[in-house]
Amino acid sequence: MTMWFIALAGLIMTTNAAQAQYYHVEHNGLYYIITGCEGLSCDVAVVPEKEDYPYYEDANKPKGNVKIPSTFSSSPSYTVTEIGDKAFWDCKALTSVTIPEGVTTIGKNAFFNCLALTSVSIPNSVTEIKEYAFDECKALTSVDIPQGVKTIKKCTFRYCFALK
Predict the structure, then answer these.
(1) What digits encode the pLDDT tens for the residues 36-55?
(2) pTM, whole model, 2 decimals?
(3) What superfamily would CATH give domain 25-152?
(4) Alpha-carbon span 104 to 101, nearest angstrom
């Protein structure tokens, strides 16, 4: 009986680990976590490659001009609704980001220390920009804040010395 219980516990742990892995999606070099599903449609947030620091392996950091898709895949379909906390943390070679319509939140420290980031396109659907979202983006020269943004938290643009 004891051996059967140990085998069953091992199977459950393996199944739970496999399920946890399943809910994280990589698409074209960006990483996503599912925030909710209805049928074969899921909402996702852009997140860093890893949950703990360092958030990316150096070779996997997004760089250059990044255009986040509004949707991807077909079954299930994924709709990007959020730029999660620390999504692009320390991506020093990231130069520009286009955020798609449908994203409502830019998370805490989302673009922290993106030293080469010069421009960000924020859509009208964004309603909240959280703390330190663009902290230490020293090359950022301009950001158009759409009228739909209702909340900009503290230190969102701290140390953005080039911002006009």
Answers:
(1) 999 999 999 999 999 888 89
(2) 0.84
(3) Ribonuclease Inhibitor (3.80.10.10)
(4) 8
